[in-house]
Write a structure and sequence with these properties.
It contains two helices and six strands; from the N terminus they run βββαβαββ. β2 (about 10-15) and β3 form a beta hairpin. The protein is globular, with a radius of gyration of 14 Å. The protein has helices spanning about 35-50, 75-85; strands spanning about 1-5, 10-15, 20-25, 60-65, 90-95, 105-115. The protein starts with a strand and ends with a strand. It has a six-stranded mixed β-sheet, covered by helices on one side. The chain has a single domain (about 20-115), classed as 2-Layer Sandwich (60s Ribosomal Protein L30, Chain: A), CATH 3.30.1330. By secondary structure, the chain is an alpha+beta fold.
Length: about 120
C-alpha cells in the first residue's frame, strides 16, 4: 500500500511504501542566507518532516544534495555533519547544478526508514 502525505499543488511532501519514506525536495524558507545557513534551515525542516512521518534522522537511508556552487560544499558539509551523527550518515551524493531558482543555493532530497 502506498501512503501519500502533505499534498502540495505539484507533489506530496512524503510518499511511504513498505516502511520506506520518500521525501520531496526541501529548500530553505529564507534564501537570503549563506550555504551553511540554508543547509541549517533545511536540516531543521527535515527533522520536522521526519517526525511527522514517524521517523528521525537516524533512519535516513540516502540523501541527494543539489548545490549551485561547489566552492561552498565545505559550508554545506559543516552544517550537514553538525546535524547528523557520524554513525548515522546515509548513502549520499552531492550534485552540482546550474540553477535551483532565485537565491536557492541547495535543495535536499532524502529517503528514510519508518522508525
Amino acid at each position: 500500500m502506498i501512503q501519500r502525505n502533505e499534498k502540495t499543488p505539484i507533489m506530496h511532501r512524503t510518499v511511504e511504501h513498505n516502511g520506506v519514506i520518500h521525501f520531496g525536495g526541501v529548500v530553505a524558507g529564507d534564501r537570503s542566507g549563506s550555504m551553511k545557513e540554508q543547509t541549517q534551515q533545511i536540516t531543521a525542516r527535515l527533522d520536522e518532516l521526519l517526525r511527522n512521518a514517524g521517523s528521525d534522522k537516524s533512519q535516513v537511508l540516502s540523501a541527494m544534495l543539489y548545490i549551485t556552487d561547489m566552492s561552498k560544499k565545505d559550508e554545506m558539509n559543516e552544517a550537514w555533519t553538525a546535524w547528523i551523527n557520524d554513525e548515522d550518515l546515509p548513502a549520499r551524493a552531492t550534485i552540482g547544478v546550474a540553477d535551483l531558482g532565485p537565491d536557492t543555493l541547495i535543495e535536499v532530497v532524502i529517503t528514510a526508514a519508518k522508525a
